[in-house]
Automatic annotation (TrEMBL):
PANTHER family: HYPERKINETIC, ISOFORM M
GO biological process: monoatomic ion transmembrane transport
Annotated source species: Pseudoxanthobacter soli DSM 19599
SUPFAM superfamilies given in the database record: NAD(P)-linked oxidoreductase
Name of this protein: Voltage-dependent potassium channel beta subunit, animal
InterPro entries: K_chnl_volt-dep_bsu_KCNAB-rel, NAD(P)_OxRdtase_dom_sf, NADP_OxRdtase_dom
Keyword NADP: yes
Alphabetical keyword list: Ion channel, Ion transport, NADP, Oxidoreductase, Transport
Length: 336
């Protein structure tokens, strides 16, 4: 496994990490999750991602139960949680939280942190992220609250996920002016269908401010792996209970174009001796601004296969990367 610094911080994360979104509690029960986590840890993965909203908090509980059962030393791994939505059911409007049970107020950030620690069964979070911007948010309130959690030892590093770069820069500037600990991580979607935000909008925060990127969905929920070449099969991630919105989110009306683009990767992958999934993950890893790529896997076999993607990063010459870009070229990214 390769280890990379989280931006300019001193923290080193495995270049490939493992997330609990969608699969925990749906494709994986406790035993399956524990087996996948054990394999990831054995292969050198030291960062495991979750959020308060994932399966209404149950994903964090599953991760916590597995960590306890596996007996990992606390100083050998990192976990993250994300705050905003509360423990509502995966953004389902029917599951309406009370105003103080969601958002980015000081009250919810602090209480959500305590609740995440209880679910994990841990004393502190390594990373704590504001899951999305909150229309009612106060940047000073967020900055002061996160700073206080770090100074209390409940959080080690904090940051954002899918925030506009302008808001992140404003947070950093406010923290600097007030001698607060600034955000050090942003967690954006990054894959061959979604390049613009990481490569353009976030370039300044990565290069100028040293913010580390912990990217998610390297396979675009399986599209780049060829899982939906012939349609959406029953039992797939896009048909999981509680995730009826995910298909529209992934495809956004571009199903045929995306499938065709994914199929064009097959020849390039074959020439490298990799699968399409491994090629797509290696492509994300080749970006030096990326601190870690978060994988989601629903079996040991799938996880082992995807972890092997790191072996192909050095094979991605500029010529091959250009071939990949041409194969994927069909429309500009849609906004997230």
């Amino acid at each position: 496994m390769e280890y990379r610094r989280l931006g300019r911080s001193g923290l080193k994360l495995s270049a490939l990490s493992y997330g609990s979104w969608v699969t925990f509690g749906t494709a994986l029960d406790d035993a399956g999750a524990r087996d996948c986590l054990a394999l990831a840890y054995e292969r050198g993965v030291n960062f495991f991602d979750s959020a308060e909203v994932y399966l209404g908090g149950e994903a964090e509980r599953m991760l916590g139960r597995a960590i306890k059962a596996l007996g990992w030393p606390r100083d050998s791994f990192c976990v993250s949680s994300k705050v905003l939505y509360g423990t509502g059911d995966n953004h389902d409007p029917a599951e309406t939280a009370r105003p103080t049970q969601q958002g980015l107020s000081r009250k919810h950030i602090i209480e959500a942190c305590e609740q995440a620690l209880q679910r994990f069964g841990l004393d502190y979070l390594d990373l704590y992220l504001c899951h999305r911007p909150d229309p009612d948010m106060s940047l000073p309130e967020i900055a002061f609250t996160m700073d206080s959690l770090i100074r209390q030892g409940k959080v080690l590093y904090w940051g954002t996920s899918e925030w506009p770069a302008s808001d992140i820069e404003a947070l950093i500037a406010f923290a600097d002016r007030n001698h607060l600990i600034p955000p050090q991580v942003e967690q954006p979607q990054y894959n061959l269908f979604h390049r613009a935000r990481v490569e353009q909008e976030y370039r300044s925060i990565a290069e100028t401010h040293g913010v580390g990127l912990t990217t998610w969905s390297p396979l675009a929920s399986g599209v780049l792996a060829g899982r939906y070449d012939d349609g959406i099969p029953p039992g797939s991630r896009l048909t999981a209970a509680g995730f009826s919105w995910l298909s529209d989110f992934v495809f956004a009306g571009r199903q045929e174009e995306m499938r065709a683009a994914a199929r064009r990767l097959q020849g390039i992958a074959a020439d490298l001796g990799s699968s399409r999934a491994q090629l797509a993950i290696a492509w994300c890893l080749a970006n030096p601004s990326v601190s870690t790529v978060i994988l989601g896997a629903s079996s040991n076999a799938q996880l082992a296969h995807n972890l092997a993607a790191i072996e192909f990063v050095e094979k991605l010459t500029p010529e091959i990367r250009e071939s990949i870009s041409q194969a994927m070229s069909f429309k500009p990214d849609r906004p997230i």
